C-alpha cells in the first residue's frame, strides 16, 4: 500500500461520516454518534497526515505551499469542531456549522486527491510512498485509540 491509498481509505470514511452527520436532527443519540465518529476520524487523520505526508512534502520547494494550504484547512476544520463542541446540538446554529464542516471536508478531500496527490506523486519516490503509508497508518491508529 502507498500513502495515497492509505489516505484515500480515511477520506472515504470522512465523506461517509460527514454526509451522515448532516442527515441528523436535534439533540439525538444518532447526531452525537455521527459527530463523534467524524471528529475522531478527522483528528486522527489530520495529525497522522500532517506528520507523515505534509511534513515530508515540505522538504521539497514545490511541496511547501500546498502543505501549508492543506494544514491551514485542517486548522479551519478544527475551529469548526470547537464551535460545534461549544454549541447545543439542538440549536439551529449547530446544524449550520455542521453543514459548513461537511462542505469543508468535501472540498479539502477533493482538492487533496485532485491536486495535492498529483504533485506529491512526482516528488516522492515509490519507496517513500510505501514507507510513509506504514508510518501514517501506525500514527492514525495510535491517534484513534487516544480519541476513544
Automatic annotation (TrEMBL):
Ranges for the Hemerythrin-like domain? 3-120
Q: Which residues form the signal peptide?
A: none
Which Gene3D superfamilies does this one have?
nmb1532 protein domain like
Domain of life the protein comes from: Bacteria
InterPro entries xrefs: Hemerythrin-like
The residues that cross the membrane are none
Q: What is this protein called?
A: Hemerythrin domain-containing protein
